[in-house]
Every structure is written in C-alpha cells, then in structure tokens.
Amino acid sequence: MSSRLHIAAFACSTTQTSTEIQSLRGRQSSFLTWFTRPMKVVERKRTPAEIREEYERLQREREERRLQQRTNPKGTISVGIDATDLFDRYEEDYEEISGGDGGGGGGGLPHIEINKMHISQSIEAPLTTTDTAILSGSLSTHNGNGGGNINLALRRVTSAKGWGEVEFGAGDTHGPLFGLKIFRNLTSRCFTTAHCGMQFSSRGIRPGLTTMLARHLDKNTMGYLQWRWGTQSSMNTSIVRDTKSSHFTFAVQLGIPHTFIMMSYQYKFQDDDQTKIKGSVKSGFFGTVVEYGAETKISRHSILGATVSVGVPQGVSLKIKLNRASQTYFFPIHLTDQLLPSAVFYATVGPLVFYLAIQRLVIRPYVRAQQEQELEKQRESSASDIAKKKQEAEAAVMLMQESVRRIIEAEESRMGLIILNAWYGKFVTDNSRKHERARVIDVTVPLQCLVKDSKLILTEASKAGLPGFYDPCVGEEKSLKMLYQFRGVMHQCLCGDTEALRIPKQSHRIDNDS
C-alpha cells in the first residue's frame, strides 16, 4: 500500500513537472516566434518632449503669420540714379579731341547723382470680420522738387462674391482726393473691378474712371480688358498665361498719349533658388524698348533681380530690385541717352560679375554660418534625447543578435541576401566640405533582421524610426549606404533618408572589373 502511494505521488509529481516544463517551453517558443516573426516597418513615435517642442514652434509661427496677416505691411523705396556721365563724357571728350581742341577732356571722376526718390508705405487694420482700414502714404522728389500724400481707405466685404472700398486722400501738390472702388465676381470664371476718383485742385475737379473685366480662358490663362477715362484715357487688352515653368504676357493699348504693343516671356527654373530669366519687347508712339533680365532667391525672404532696358529714345538703363518679405527696394540707374554697345555690355556683365562675387564671398558664407548655428543649437537641445535613443537602439541590437544569426544561416544555405556592411547618417563626400565631420552609425544588424525570404523592403518613411536605428545628426541630410551579397555576388547601394528601398537589385551589382 505504501509503495503504491509513493508510485502515485511520484507519477503526480512527474506529471506536474512535465506540465510546467511544457508550459515554459511553450512560452519560450511563443517568445521566439514573436521575436523572429516578420517585422513590420513602422515609424517611431515621438516623445512628449518632442511633441511639446513641435507644438510650441507651430504656435509661434502661427502667431507670426496672424500678426503679418492682420497688419499686412507693404513698402517701396525707389532711388533713381543718373549715371550718364560714365559713358556720355567719353563721347564728348572724343569729339573734342578729334575736333582739335588740345585742352579738351574734362578730367576728374564721373559725376553720378540721385535725381529722384520715391517712398511709399501701407498697413492694414482689421476693424471687424468684414471691415478693414488701410492707411498708406508716399513721398516723391524729382530734381529737387517733390511732394507727398496720405490716404485712408475703408474696405468692406459685402459677400463671398465681392467687396467695396471708399478712399480719402490729401496731398501738398494735388489737393484732396475721393474715390470709390468695387470688386465683383460675375461668374466662377469671370470678375470685374471699377474705380472712380475725383481729384480736387486749384484748377478744379479732375474726375477719373477705370473699369476692368477679367476672365479665366483656361486653367493657366487669363484675359483682361481695361478701359480708362480721365487725364490719360486708354483701352487696354491683355492675355496672361502663367504655368509652373513659364509666364507669358501679350498686351495692346490704344490711348492718349500712350499707344503701344507689348510682349514678355519669363522662364522659371525648377531649382531651390527659384531663378527666373525674362525678356520683353514694347513698341509704340514713344519708341521701342527691349528689356531682359533675371532674378533669383538669395535667402529665405529675399529675392534679387536685375533688368537691362535698351530703347529709343530712352537709351540704356539698368534696374536693380530687391524684395525683402513685403518690402521692395528699387534702383533704376540711367546709364546713357544713346545706344552705346559699351553701356549695354557693362550693364549686362557688371551686375552678373558683382552678384557672383557677392554670392561667393558674402551670401554663401553667411547662409552657411546661419545654418551651422541653427544645427548646433538643435544638436545641443537634442543631445540628451539622442543619447537616450542611442541606448534604446543598442539594446534592440543586442536582442536581435540571436535572431540575426539564424537569419544569416538560413540565407547562407540558399545563397540569399546577406548584409555585409550598412551605415546610416551624414556622409561627407564633397571636397569643399572636408572640414565637416561625418556622423554615421552601423546598422548592419538591424537591416539583416528585417530580411525575409532574401528580400529587404523599406518604405519612404525616415529610416531613423526603424528598430535598432536612431538619428545621429538631427536636422541634417542623411543617407543609407549598404554593401550586401546576393547569390555570391557583391552589391552596393546608396539611398536617401526618405527614399523607398527594395533589394536585391541588378543595378546594385558590382562588376568584377571594378
């Protein structure tokens, strides 16, 4: 009886132990199955600190945009420069010398003067959701004589289809001004504007009326018809076509005293600097004017442009314009009253050489220094976060070692995909940037862990969010460089941080000769 009890107790104990062992093995098997199952590439979620910092930054930008929209300041400064003495004086000296005047030649430096200036400024002040007050003023001088005026306009949005505006003004040369302006959408493709004004002066009242009808001819083309009555009456029609890569304008005007035909074309380069080149021809009773020029973006908020104007009887002029946010600085430089090839040459080549020198010596170093300062601040603010993510990535890599070993064994048995070396971060390959330090991390193990059936597929999401990855250079351009073996043949590839990647590929193959 006692032996039977011992046998039963032993059997019960053995059964219980066997059950626990099987349970433990089951949990281990489940863990291994979970860890070695196909991994889905997902983007790493941001920490609360990152979310808070992003929210504060967006809030500041929103406040700045709201302030800009509420005031909408606009300003223009124009400075006219008379530089005709640079070229005309040499023609006069040559005529004097060829005429036998031995004492000819007006020595000394050329005389360059500012003969006209114009300054204007306007701001908006929203009164209600539909009413806005616009305050503007301007000052102008020409050869020592000038004047100014100040205007106040009240604009009301009457409906979704239109608005009306009342304008009051006063000046020291033209007297009081009263005007009305309306805008109205006639259809979804057509709108009209009308402006009526009365200028009071010592000579009486000078009325004026301007109306315009515009219509969308197609997705990128607009047609305009304008009629003006008053001191300078005219009828103008124009067609404007604006696309992503070009801008074309054709206009014809019949009027007193100006009647002309004009055609202009502008080509837009698809680059980061938003460079544009343009040319136009304008011919009428006043003569013919040919203009050509270019403009480019020199900083985040600044656009610089230069235009050469050649005409009869206007002569040769160089116009330089700088747009800084909503402020415009305009410098028309009159070079000569005649058509001199030397003036055209210097007006064309001079600004180009000057811009290239300034860009290389001033603009690029300044922009590079600003970017480095911003990156340095970003590195300092995110140093602790980078260190934390580095520890997390290293811990994830340690957990992947056993799984990667089995994946490599399976891939080697079928001559599959084996990641030999993989680096992620900022690579410095340009000779002009040798002073910069490359910041990369080894991601061979994490990528091998993502290999399934001799394939590796990465989405367009940032690679910094992959398991075992982290961002070693926050805010800078990053790449993924990889050396892998497939079917016993070496392959190599380099892709951007947000580029999709699918390997192996025949184009990544390294030839034996190379």
Automatic annotation (TrEMBL):
Keyword Nuclease applies: no
Highest taxon listed in the record's lineage: Eukaryota
This protein's record includes keyword Chaperone: yes
Name listed for the protein in its UniProt record: DnaJ (Hsp40) homolog, subfamily C, member 11a
GO cellular component terms attached to this protein's record: mitochondrion
GO annotation (BP), single: cristae formation
Keywords linked to the UniProt accession: Chaperone
InterPro entries referenced in this protein's UniProt entry, alphabetically: DnaJ-like_C11_C, DNAJC11-like_beta-barrel, Mito_inner_membrane_organizer
Originating species: Cyprinus carpio carpio
Domain DnaJ-like protein C11 C-terminal: 377-504
Domain (DNAJC11-like beta-barrel): residue spans on this chain: 117-329
